[in-house]
Amino acid sequence: INIREQLRQILGQEAAFRGVQEPALQVIIKQESPVIVVIGTGGGKNILFILPAQCLGGLTVVVVPLVSLRSDIKDRCN
């Protein structure tokens, strides 16, 4: 899977990975476990589950503790 191309398909041709997103996604796509990624607010954590969910198919379960955050993530995935 070409994760850079997948990112561009999801976010547009100008999209680029930030910080540890790309190496984290490489590990996630390989389905290595466990994966722990620490990224601050606004750092792009959502792409770490959105991109694999769209590329790999199957079922993706995301646990979000805050209702407002849950709504924001749901809107981004639609």
TrEMBL record:
Name it.
Answer: DEAD/DEAH box helicase domain-containing protein
Q: Which residues cross the membrane?
A: 47-69
Annotated keywords? Membrane, Transmembrane, Transmembrane helix
* Superkingdom of origin organism: Eukaryota
Recorded hits in InterPro entries, A to Z, give: P-loop_NTPase (IPR027417)
State the organism named in the record.
Cladorrhinum samala
Gene3D superfamilies associated with the record: P-loop containing nucleotide triphosphate hydrolases (3.40.50.300)
